[in-house]
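ok trying again, last paste got cut off:
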Amino acid sequence: MAKIAPYGTWVSPLGAADVARAGSAPSWVRRHGDEVFWTEGQPLEGGRSALFRHDGERVRRVLAAPWNVRSRVHEYGGLPYLVLGDRVVFVNWDDQRVYLTDRDGVDPAPISAEPSTPQGWRYVDLVAGPGDAEVWCVREDASDYRELVALPLDGGPARVLGRTHHFMTAPQPSPDGRHAAWIGWEHPNMPWDGTELCVAAVGADGTFGPHRVVAGGPRESVCQVQWEAPDSLLAMTDPQGWWNLHRIGLDGSVVALAPGEHELGGALWQLGYQWFAQLGRGRFAVLRRNRLTVLDERSGTVTEVETDLPVWSNLDAGTDGVVVASAAGPRSDWTPVRLDLSTGELAVLGTPGDPPSVAYLPEPRTVLFDAPEGHRIPAHVYAPTNPDFVGPDGELPPLLVCAHGGPTSHDVPALSYDIAYFTSRGFAVVTVDYAGSTGHGRAFRELLKEQWGVADVRDCATVATALVKEGLADPGRIAIRGGSAGGWTAAAAITSVDTFQCAVLRYPLLDLTPWADGGVESHDFESRYVEGLVGSLPEHRERYLERSPINHIDTLSGPVLLLQGLEDQVCPPAQANRFVAALDGTGVPHAYLTFAGEQHGFRAASTIATAAEAELSFYGQVFGFATDAPEVELHR
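nice, full thing came through this time. structure:
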């Protein structure tokens, strides 16, 4: 029989160590013949990224510690390895050089030159060059320029293939080796604003000739490209406002294969991400808002594939109808999978940890909330979930409103131990796809244009207020939480509206001007991102000052917990330091935890666990109930 206990105090078998599993989700799942490769975070090894392969029978670790398969290009990285026959090429995090090894990871040797400064050259998006004798990839210089280069496998000098745009990605030779394609874009655009799909002839010296643009533009975003034949390309692009799959001919023809108001692509945060793969005979495996579908160009249809793991990420496939990816479900952790579309057989290739019991894992409810401005706000609502407890009659649970990062991103209803950690203790949680989120078309993304810190805050407050009106949350115990851009939204909310009683900010942006004005505290990739989100400089400088939470310490509506990695190059600790310095002595309860060795986003198990426990303790102190977490000290 369930016990009656106040919400927030329920005893849960899910601990902070379970939350740390979030750092081990598999990434970059790719096929090579009958084998499947992927990278996977190792929270218990400081958060390094290890490379694995499934040989058809069992999982083998390709590279042992201390090898860390991860790129630093754009600070968010991208595809960090490539399999070529019996050889593996990969980017090592510590020095950002490219190495060559065999399938068992024996004696890796560098094939890229040592730069004059540590990590002075960074590489990403590795693909096979003509004849598999070299690797084509993106090279980023520490002085913030990018070029496409070829790295001979014998360690010879790199050859510059071309440099056409400030940002470049996806270099690919045509099947006959006569042409090359790639994607490029310029400041102030982000890749989801506008990119250009370029094609050029490959010269006798192996470099690219003059290029021409065959798709894309200032307001058209090509996010993925693959050669289909020597004279045609497949591109995921959005000329009509929705990412759809198109065939692009070298003769200038453009055909949408299954046009519609459905989002089949996404934001290119990490270079090398794949939303579609060719299956042959006019069929394609395609992700539609993280759901696996099959696009059939003959019928012009996009049909969802029913599997036990409904949420998919970054797929790969072959003409034999076998699809591989990372997949998860509302109550199933992320794992590499192999699906045979002809038989429906789904094989789980990894070994995801088993939760104490699915009974403690919440089942998300997808809801569309009406915004006063006329749009609808997608959200996933998670109720308090614990078979051992119920709340007292007349008491409503505290609510955690989660703002995703990006902000050009979206939430996915996959198992999150971070959420279950709180719902199993009696919290209600809602994740909000506020104005500007992806997955809902360009018009919805552009609702955030010059409205960052306003529209996102308003949508989060609207959702919280609606849940209170439905009787699902206590209006006096509402927190807003987020990391990176989500941390910005949480900080903007706690300083501009009175809906929320406290905020948890993970590696947040807090001060716009030094982040955007010349990129003093930012990095090149996002140094002009804010121009679209807030306004151009210097014309809108006052708007930057008005929107920045650091300038509104006096309007905080409640306590704040800040969690910050000390090696963060995206949202640097200098911003959090200034924010906390301004908080000291104000009487507003606050705590500030920093983590050595952590970049943008936490990877080490000890960091993730400490952050979870600190957040639980923080809520308990603010909302007035005891928790089972070590008490975090609040300063005033």
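cool. The longest strand covers residues 208-216. The first helix runs from residue 16 to 19.
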